[in-house]
Each structure stands twice: as C-alpha cells, then as structure tokens.
Specification:
The complex is a heterodimer of chains A (232) and B (137). Chain A is mainly beta. Chain A contains one helix and 14 strands; from the N terminus they run H-E-E-E-E-E-E-E-E-E-E-E-E-E-E. Chain B has 137 residues and is mainly β. In chain B, the strands form three sheets. A four-stranded antiparallel β-sheet of chain B has the order 7-6-9-10, with no helix packed on it. In chain B, strands 2-4-5 form a three-stranded antiparallel β-sheet, with no helix packed on it. A two-stranded antiparallel sheet of chain B has the order 1-3. Classes of the chains: A mainly beta (232), B mainly beta (137). Chains A and B meet through helix 1, strand 1, strand 4, strand 5 and strand 6 of A and strand 3, strand 5, strand 6, strand 7 and strand 8 of B. Strand 8 of chain A pairs parallel with strand 7 of chain B, so a sheet runs across the interface.
Chain lengths: 232, 137
C-alpha cells in the first residue's frame, strides 16, 4: 500500500512538472544544401546563434558536414555545441528524394526516425521562423519586405542575395533583417545572416568540393533501429 | 521518473510497476537507465531501453504570415501559436508546397535533450498546411 501511494505521488509529480514551460531549445542544422539532382557536392556548414535570455545571452554553434550526390540525396552530419563549447547533440540526417524518405539518425542512441519525403523534383522548400522576430513577442512586427541585394562570390561561386526586412510597428528604428545568398547553379544557400534586437544568426559554407560523394554516406548503418513517423 | 517527455498515444512503464495510458499531448518524460519507455510518436513506435539521460519528445509549432515566396522556397515569418501555448521549437526548414505557399503551416520537431546543454530541435520534415493559429508545445 505504501509503495502504491509512493508511486501515485510520483506520478502526480510527473504530471505537474510536465505542465511547466519547456526550456529554450536550440535549433538543429539548417537545410542549406537543397535535395536537388544533378549537382553532387560536399562542404562544411557553420552556424552561430546568439540570443538574449532572461539571465544573459545564450549562444550555440552548429558544425555540419554536408554532401549531396547526383540523385539529389543529401546527408548532414551535425554537431551542436553550446556557448561554452560543450557538445549537446550529434546526429545525422539523410534526405532521400529517390526513396522518398528523410531519416534522422541519433548517433549516440543508434535510433533513426524516418519520415516521408516527396519524390518530386519540383517541390518547394519551407523555411520556418524567417527572422528572429518570429519569437520576439515584446514587439508587434509589420509585414516583410524583400529586396535583391546583388551578387557576390563565395567559395569561387556566384551567389545572388535577397534581403528580408521587418520593422516593429511604431518603432521604425527597430528592425529584423535577414539576408540569404543562393546559388541556383549549385542549388544551395551559401550564406545566411540575421539580426534583430534580441538575436543574431549566421550560417556559411566552407570547403566546397564538387564531385560525387561516397555512396556509403547514403546508407543507414545496420545497427540502427529505424522508427517510421507518419505525422499526426 | 523526473519530469520528462511523452508523445501522444504513448505510455510509460517504470520497472514494470507503473503504466500511463493516453497522456497529455506534448508532455515530457525523462527516462533513467533502469526504465523503459514506449511511445507511438507521430504514428510510429518508439522503444528505448537503457537510454541513459537522453530525453526525446515530439514538439509541434504553428507558423503564419508574413509568407514570402521566392523561386522554389517559401518562408513563414511568425509563430502562430494559440493563446496560452508556447513553442519549444521556433525555426526550421523542410518541405514542401506547390505551386503556392499556404498562409499557415504546422510542423513537428524531434526534440533531443541529452541533459548536458539546452535541448536541440531537429526538424523532421513533417510540415503541413493548416488553419492557424494552432496549439504549440
């Protein structure tokens, strides 16, 4: 009876604690290399995030090895570190428009989560939370405007820039500005920058290497347990 | 059990002495090394045994206007969470809409918490057109 009561109390404690707000979470690696066919390539992807929290600034760095084969399959091996350099999470992501799947491999747990991915080469890619103002509820933000910001060379390749700007309503000096530099030739984003009152973000590529990556990169190791997720 | 994560339609078993059926959507369960958790996450089945301190959860976030479309890419500029709900994950990327981008979308993330640093939101690519705002967790 005592054990049952103890378990009951523990169970209630779980439910109560589960209702509390979640701590701020760090985003994983951004999708800079789009899963498009015909442009095999390998590169490193470096992302840095900083945002003002209640108890000071929080920062994170994400370093990823990325490769894409001729079929458009993409592999991202990401390591997320916090501001002190501690490694939070390592994972790999396999995006396969040929098989129609996307698999997240948790390398420490040896578990993979597989979701459907469209096979069409004409699909549009979604970028969510454009601009740091998406989470800043202390200001009311106006509509987004876009403007072309010219061309630049990154890693010896030409990229075209687009700037997204939002202005806080009633505070014209308060802006959320993001720039994206995209190469239609390589089907990848070479540089992303974002700045807002409470957050900064940047992502860039380096070590660009054209050519077919090792096919083994696009296979799931046998020791992984694969879980299929179909959506709610 | 200490706090922790669980997914909809999931249950948790602690050394075979406790079972939780139909828990609240979006709540969390941490799992210690001598425990097991079974979760039918977003339609699949998750089974972890002796997973150490790692915590897993599926989180949902709604996004809405402004929506910007450039070539083969769509951008959503704001969170669209129902009043009183808060998102764990606030940015991400995935696929796919054609030929136009809807005003509201919902997306699922895999939230991985090793207990060492802040949790990490991994976009698992499940993005759907939706009516918004909607409940975030």
């Amino acid at each position: 009876m005592t054990a049952w009561l103890t378990l009951s109390v523990a169970f209630v404690a779980v439910l109560v604690s589960a209702q509390t707000a979640h701590p701020p979470a760090t985003p994983g690696a951004a999708l800079l290399v789009l899963p498009r066919s015909g442009v095999p390539i390998s590169l490193e992807q470096i992302e840095e995030r900083w945002r003002q929290g209640k108890d000071g600034g929080d920062s994170a760095e994400i370093k990823s090895q990325v490769c894409r084969d001729s079929a458009g399959r993409v592999r991202i091996d990401a390591e997320v570190r916090d501001g002190s350099g501690r490694s939070a999470t390592r994972y790999a992501e396999l995006i396969d428009p040929v098989a129609g799947s996307r698999v997240v491999l948790l390398t420490a747990e040896k578990i993979g989560y597989r979701t459907p991915f469209p096979k069409s080469d004409q699909s549009k890619f979604a970028f969510l939370g454009l601009g740091q103002s998406s989470w800043d509820s202390s200001h009311k933000w106006g509509p987004a405007t876009t403007e072309a910001v010219g061309k630049r060379t990154i890693q010896g390749v030409g990229f075209e820039g687009t700037r997204f700007i939002r202005v806080a309503e009633g505070e014209p000096g308060l802006t959320d500005t993001n720039e994206q530099w995209y190469s239609d030739e390589l089907k990848l984003i070479g540089l992303l920058t974002g700045s807002a009152p409470l957050e900064r973000y940047s992502a860039h590529i380096q070590g660009l290497r054209p050519g077919e990556p090792d096919p083994a990169f696009f296979t799931i190791p046998a020791e992984y347990r694969i879980i299929d997720l179909q959506g709610r | 059990v200490d706090g922790g994560h669980v997914n909809p339609n999931s249950y948790i078993s602690v050394t075979n002495s406790q079972t939780l059926d139909d828990p609240t959507d979006g709540t969390d369960y941490a799992v210690n090394s001598d425990e097991e958790v079974f979760c039918s996450g977003v339609g699949g089945l998750v089974y972890l045994q002796d997973p150490g301190p790692t915590v897993l959860r599926i989180a949902t976030t709604y996004f809405g206007p402004p929506v910007v479309q450039t070539d083969d890419k769509c951008y959503w500029g704001s969170l669209a969470c129902s009043p009183g709900t808060h998102p764990t994950c606030q940015v991400g990327s995935g696929y796919t809409f054609a030929p136009t981008c809807p005003q509201y979308v919902k997306t699922d993330y895999l939230v991985v918490n090793t207990g060492v640093t802040a949790p990490v939101c991994i976009g698992i690519g499940l993005i759907f057109a939706a009516s918004g705002p909607g409940p975030c967790n």
